[in-house]
Amino acid sequence: MTAVFQFQEWLTLHSARVEAALENLLDPVSTNPGRLHQAMRYAAQGGGKRIRPLLVYAAGALGDAKPEILDAAATAIECIHAYSLVHDDLPCMDDDDLRRGRPTVHKAFDEATALLVGDALQTRAFEILANANCASDLKLHMISALAAASGSRGMAGGQAIDLESVGKKLDLAGLKQMHAMKTGALLSCAVELGGIAAQLDPGQMQCLEQYSRALGLAFQIVDDVLDATSDSQTLGKTAGKDAANDKPTYVTLMGLDYAQSQAKQLQEEAITSLAGFGSKGQALENLALLVVSRAK
Amino acid sequence: MTAVFQFQEWLTLHSARVEAALENLLDPVSTNPGRLHQAMRYAAQGGGKRIRPLLVYAAGALGDAKPEILDAAATAIECIHAYSLVHDDLPCMDDDDLRRGRPTVHKAFDEATALLVGDALQTRAFEILANANCASDLKLHMISALAAASGSRGMAGGQAIDLESVGKKLDLAGLKQMHAMKTGALLSCAVELGGIAAQLDPGQMQCLEQYSRALGLAFQIVDDVLDATSDSQTLGKTAGKDAANDKPTYVTLMGLDYAQSQAKQLQEEAITSLAGFGSKGQALENLALLVVSRAK
């Protein structure tokens, strides 16, 4: 009889692993300029759900990826995510004072420093991958995937579309495309990086893509549901922002009940796409459950 | 008898080459989101001296680097340079309205777009290198060098030190260290990328380092001299900014005459370090002359 997969144990272990990897791979505050490195650590090490790095480890478990490659990929993608949050919170974007229950970087430091923190975290992400201890082709594949997911045809492009959509009322197809770029691309990339590190075959990578597409959409629908139904203290960031900014969301376009049932259905779709991986897919399966049932 | 090296011809040819490479390697405006891609092109294709890409081609000529690798490296480093200018011009940094004789990106578009333009240009730089048509090890070497030069221990770090120095009066050693990171690192990196692409040996790379160190310092001294002696129309950017911001410069710390003679001496040092390359170093030699004698 195989041992029962203990997701809570996996989660505790790998959450600690993410924090250790960030601690090791970010420059220490003792490196000049100290204040910038301190602010970079404030941005990247201030908690958060760590969904993307956890997805890297979970997808890496589908093959036999070397742990240190997964550490590099997990840290790199979290650096990109952290940079996007720091820039997103700036006054010229969302102008947010609160993130992960603490003052945003431009509030805790200053705007110019926050700008540089985001810039330098992005650079560090690519540097970490370029210097990872693994085969050159694997590293380049990961760098290329991360760049495609985070640049103007991915995350940054999605943010640009989001900016243009204020007051314009996107329809459901437009909303989906915007979120597929703004949030979906980086979530998918996390799964992809794990799959690349695990050296999966093209058929397996295709199953992962199906998983990621469903998960990414579910993630955003749940985000919109939480923004509409939760409070700032629970979320650790400003709640009700979408309504306040008159932004279309899955909740405003679908209604709350339908949005919630869609998230559940997408969760099922994500899990179904893992069928071929057998018990090796259990961490990814549980992460899909976690994403849909989360409270923040 | 060898043909006389015609620098003006070389310059015309390679300046056109830079523009063509940018045109080819930046996303077209027809790619969604169009406004972001348009703004990225506005930022990167608005002229400028193109010193960094020209240094890539000139250093590449020391060996037999493949032209398309040099195109990728030249475009990547110009994308990083352009991103740094866009972010540097933002209201929370230098708050500049004029760049290369035209409105800055946040003036021509808006602040949020300028933020994303810088972010996405940085991503594109690494993506271009990762997807370049050459050996994997060469690409990784270039990505690693570019990240080190532009991140928190390089350009972005130098900008952070610059921010902290306002009102604090750096001494000459502090000013040199700040500029070595803020401007010097990326200029050196341009030369290094050319050298990597040309597959030079370690001894040759060391000569290039000497060249770059002298050139980088000369470049910044001349920048300070021009800021103190020229006007905004000639420079294509706001002149007299340093004095207005009460920032220490080579001119305020050394005096104008000494600064000018130092720049000349550094130019000589740069040229001397090329001795071992014979006639292959002529483009680099002429670029050192150009940097010191430029009027903007």
Task: Tell me the layout of helices and strands.
Two copies of one chain form a homodimer.
Chain A lengths: L6 H19 L8 H11 L6 H10 L6 H22 L9 E2 L2 E2 L1 H4 L2 H20 L5 H15 L4 H11 L6 H26 L4 H28 L2 H4 L5 H4 L5 H5 L1 H17 L9 H12 L3
Antiparallel strand pairs in A: 1-2
Structure described in brief:
2 copies of one chain form a homodimer. Chain A is mostly helical and 296 residues long.
Give your account of this protein's structure:
By secondary structure, the first copy, chain A, is an all-alpha fold. The first copy, chain A, has one domain: Orthogonal Bundle (Farnesyl Diphosphate Synthase), CATH 1.10.600. In chain A, 70% of the residues lie in helices and 1% in strands. Chain A has helices spanning 7-25, 34-44, 51-60, 67-88, 105-108, 111-130, 136-150, 155-165, 172-197, 202-229, 232-235, 241-244, 250-254, 256-272, 282-293; strands at 98-99, 102-103. Chain A has a two-stranded antiparallel ribbon with strand order 1-2. In chain A, helix 10 packs antiparallel against helix 14. Chain A starts with 6 loop residues before the first helix and ends with a helix. The mean pLDDT of chain A is 93.
